[in-house]
Amino acid sequence: MKTYGINSFTAGWLCLLLGCAHYQSKPLTEQAVQQQLQTPSRAQITMQAAKIKHPLLEPVKFDMANGLSPDEAAILAVLRNPELRGIRDQHGIANAQLLQAGLLPDPKVSYSFSAPSAGTNLGTNNAFGASLSWQATALVWRQNKIKAAEKQQQSVDLQIAWQEWQIAQAAKLAAYQLIVYRQQQALLSEMAQRLEDNRARLQEAAELGLVTELERVAAVSAKNLVDIRLLALKLQIKQQQQRLNRAMGLKPHEAVNLQQDAELVTAMKAPAYDALIQDIGNRRLDLMALKRGYESQEERLHIAVMQQFPQISIGFDSARDNSNLYTLGFGVSMTVPIFDRNQGQIALDRATRQQLFDQYSSRLFQARADIAELLVTIASLNKQIQSVRHAIPDLANLVKAYQTGIENGQVDVFNYYVAWNNLTDKKIGLLTLELQLVQAGIALEVASGLYHAATDFNEKEL
Q: Which residues are registered as beta bridge partners of 313?
């Protein structure tokens, strides 16, 4: 027991001198998980948002007194989305791989002992031998391994930033969608109330024989159709609220106060196609990540080619034979590349490099195609919005005219409600088009790698 204690003490000091790692358990408990998922305070969010570091997103000052803006929702998603925590852990893995790439192989120490066991042992001694060897060729490709690991680390960091950017944009769009749906709900609720008033009027008129049964049934049917639309929209609002909570890392039933007065885009001006695709490979985060990954694979292929040549180890040995003769020597050993010349690893690394090359080319082609398609969509939505916005004042004037006609007894209430409902439908349609324009603008930001790639402007500039 005493010997065991001395050995443990010696091993502990040796491990301390060599910088050994120590094991520390981290149990996966419900308490630890809940603590990880706990929503931070507003002060903590404000502090984190002011210090955020991202290639595209800029630090913002949170002011949620009047509700959460779409841009603030995007930042909150980057700070709190649980999926990003697992993605960011890849940074630590890449750092460990970089550390491993810079380490040289350990030297090998061997010791042998032999004692005479039979026969004539007169004048003989116990024999022993000790040797120290090290693989010298590890120095040949060490720098290549470090370069490969550095490029891979850069690729991982860019991939993390790309995922953060996509989740931020998704949260921003989800906030805009929820704002629009609530505005549409207000318009539909107003329409439903008008149709209910109209149905009640026609019901009384039908009982007095002033209108036909067909007119009464038509009023009831119109009210029911709007009620169905309103119920579907309320369900859509609940679903969208859950999507937004999920994107921002909030609990399913946690209330989110959004800015209801957030202005939507009424017209959008995007740069020319050539300006958007210029130098996109050095601007869009996922393309930059693929490029760094390709450069890392180039280094790996270079290493595989170098490893097809003989691997050389050098060493020293000291020995004493049974006749008490001491020897000190130097040795060199190397592999003979006859059967395995690292052909399999070279073929694998070459195929992987080609795959990464094709992935980059395909992603670049897709990015350019997406930009071209989005520019067409934005141009079309600009014209549609302009047309609807010009039609709304005419419908509003028609409603006013019907209202005046009712007061003078020249127009019946039914036609007045029809005109009013048509005006409401146009306003709801305009909100839908403006939301589609916001969606196209966010998609253009993602496709081009430019924050605020398109700018809002007055529709007179169309």
A: 135, 333
Output the CA torsion 159→162→168→171 (10° steps): -80
Answer for the pair 326, 318: CB distance below 8 angstroms, yes or no.
yes
Phi/psi for 59 (5° steps) reads -60, 140
Q: At what angle do helices 42-50 and 70-80 cross, to 10 degrees?
A: 90
Closest CA to 288 of 158, 430, 160, 459: 158
Cα–Cα distances in angstroms (integers) from residue 180 to residues 171, 247, 427, 436, in the given order: 14, 18, 11, 11
Q: What is the pTM of this model?
A: 0.81
Q: Per CATH, which fold does 43-113+127-461 belong to?
A: Outer membrane efflux proteins (OEP) (1.20.1600)
Q: Which residues pair with 129 in a beta bridge?
A: 112, 319
3-state secondary structure of 418: helix
Place of tokens 């119920």: 231
End-to-end CA distance of the chain: 90
Structural tokens at position 387: 């047309």
For 298-315, give one letter per residue: b (16+ CB within 10 A) or e.
bbbbbbbbebeeebebeb
Q: With beta carbons less than 8 A apart as the criterion, state whether 180 and 187 touch.
A: no
Q: What is the residue-wise DSSP string for 179-225? A: HHHHHHHHHHHHHHHHHHHHHHHHHHHHHTTSS-HHHHHHHHHHHHH
The residue among 140, 20, 110, 452 whose CA lies nearest residue 270 is: 452
Residue 139 near residue 277, CB atoms below 8 Å: no
- Please state, in angstroms and as integers, the Cα–Cα distance from residue 246 to each residue in 13, 114, 436, following that order: 50, 70, 22
* Three-class DSSP category at 339: coil
Mean pLDDT per block of 10 residues along the chain (462 residues) reads 45 53 79 72 64 73 76 85 83 84 87 81 79 88 91 92 90 92 92 86 82 80 90 93 87 78 82 92 93 95 90 88 85 85 91 96 96 95 94 90 76 76 92 94 91 57 40
**What is the CA 216 to chain-centroid distance, rounded?**
54
Give the chain's length: 462
DSSP string over 138-169: GGTSHHHHHHHHHHHHHHHHHHHHHHHHHHHH
In angstroms, rounded to a whole number, what is the distance separating the alpha carbons of residues 64 and 41?
12
Which residue, 277, 324, 328, 343, is CA-closest to 131? 328
Would you say 48 and 60 are in contact if contact means Cβ atoms under 8 Å apart?
no
